[in-house]
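Hello Y.,

Per our agreement to keep a running log of every chain we model this quarter, I'm adding this entry. I've kept the format consistent with earlier entries: sequence first, then predicted structure.
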Amino acid sequence: MAPSRNLTTLLNAWSNGDSAAGNHLVESLYPELRVIANQRLHGFSGDITLQATELLHEAFIRLNDQNQVTWANRSHFLAIASTVMRRILLDAARRRTAARRDRRVESPINEDTPPISSARAEEVIELDAALEELAAMAPRQARVVEMRYFGGLLQEETAEVLGVSVATVKRDWTIAKAWLYRRLNGVDESEPQR
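Predicted structure for the entry above:
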């Protein structure tokens, strides 16, 4: 059986409740997922103590609840895993800014929340809001950003997951990056090109 076909079989068995398949899947994809976790944490240049391993394990806990997903292939799983990691870090940023606004909080947010600087937390939330705006106007471009930037997927892998050509991914990536740059820097926020 081809490696990607084997992974797809493992993914589907895992989503159907086969914990042994989940364990084998973790062993097979752990190195790639660890790279993605490191990439996500690298983007958090503030005060953060969460380690890649902790982020990865929290993502697996959340992914384990995704038993209704029919996994297309390895790239599809990696894209979803990356999105889950992004959400974990976004949740931490939101908790950080909420605690800062609540003057009644006199101690750290809690032991499980990774400390992140207030400025960096606000940047992460602003980026998420911009990405949500982009998704409302150009959903595929937003997915390309999630997969390429947050997921670390190659253009070819992104094209495979989205079912489009590599040229379309390149174009969407270029347009989305330009729109996000303008949006985050307060420049004309016109609708992204199609």
